[in-house]
Each structure stands twice: as structure tokens, then as C-alpha cells.
Amino acid sequence: MKKITVWGFSWVPPVAQGLVRDLRVRWALEEAGLAYESRCIDTGERNSGDYRHKHPFGMVPVLESADGAMIESGAIVHAIAEQCEALMPADRRAETLGWMFTALNTVEPPLWNLFVMDVLHGEEAWVPLRRPAVVDEVNHRLAALSECLADRDYLLGRFTAADILMTTVLRFIRHTNLLARFPSLVAYVERCEARPAFDAALRNQLDGYARNEPVAA
């Protein structure tokens, strides 16, 4: 990949900062040692014709490069990993890919549902009725993931693109104490977030939000 541009939002509320999915793409690029430019849109631009041409649903991230444009964070991380042996080991490609899909299709849905309920709909009357079942589902996923990790530092024993996706998924419940019930998962997230590439990606995203923070009335 050459001449890479990553599109994200210009600003999001503090509760969502560090969670928007362009973080995954930035992290993968940092791990792969690929330089990139950051571009941003505000919420009013999401439905513009120009941006809808980049992403038909008006979402982020979008990655543009000399090879063309891509949408969907999982697909973008996969494309980056395919060019980086460290993120997608040739001898464990199928296993890495399996865990990438597990993060996005098995673990993320209930965790994202809980985040949406608590953060976006927390004051609505239906939430207390639905929340216990969602928490049970989250705990079920976390327990299974904890067993899978066992005594391994990373999902495959070594850091791969699967860990980028899984860690960013687990961050969706940082507003709760659910992860604390699983010390191995707490240690896993801390281990992944201690990587210099994660720190660089997070700073890149947060610096953009800081530059575009709305002026208080």
C-alpha cells in the first residue's frame, strides 16, 4: 500500500473517544510500519454525496490508497495484515483469520449492544428490562474467551491482527466492571494496549479530536 489516507470523524463525545473503529486501522498500519495521512469528516458531512461515494452508509473508517478505496474496519485490517508477516503469519493464516472473524462476529455484537444500551439509551424505560440478558450474554462470551486464552499472552500465542480486533472489541465495555471478573482478559488488554503501535494510533486519533473539539457556548 502507498499514499494511504485514513478517514475518521473530526470529533466524537469523550465517552466514544478511543472506541471509533478507525482506531483499528490506525493500529494495524502502525504495527505494519506503513505511513498514513489522517482525514476527517464531521457528522454533517456523513451524508454528503462526496462522502457517500467513499462509503455508501456514511460511516468510518475509509482507507484510500494508490490501490483504491476500502470500507469496513475488519476488511481493512485484513488487507493490511496480508502484507505484514507479523500480523498474518504465513503458517497460521487460517487460524489468524478465524480469530479475526471471531472478534467481529462472535464477541463484538453483545459487547456493542451493551455499550449502545448503556451509553446511548441508558435513560430509556426498556433498558433495565433488557440489560440483564445482554450482560449474561457478554459474560458468556468473556468466560469462553478467557478459557481460550488460558496461559497464552495472545490469541495465537504471538501478537497478530486478531489481537488488534479483539482488543478494540473488548474496549467497548470499558464503561463497566465486567472485564474485571476475568483477570486474564484484563492482563491481555493491558498487554496489547502497552504496545507502542497502539499508543501511536490512539494518540493520532485523540489528537484529531482535540484539534476539532467544539467551542463551548
Automatic annotation (TrEMBL):
Q: Which SUPFAM superfamilies match?
A: GST C-terminal domain-like (SSF47616), Thioredoxin-like (SSF52833)
Q: Name one Pfam family in it.
A: GST_N_3
Q: Which UniProt keywords apply?
A: Transferase
In its keyword annotation, does this UniProt entry include Cytoplasm?
A: no
Highest taxon above the source species: Bacteria
Domain GST C-terminal positions: 89-210
State a single Gene Ontology molecular function: transferase activity
* Residue ranges of domain GST N-terminal in the record: 9-88
Identify the PANTHER family for this entry.
GLUTATHIONE S-TRANSFERASE GSTA (PTHR44051:SF8), GLUTATHIONE S-TRANSFERASE-RELATED (PTHR44051)
Q: What is this protein called?
A: Glutathione S-transferase
- Please report the organism this UniProt entry assigns to the protein: Rhodanobacter glycinis
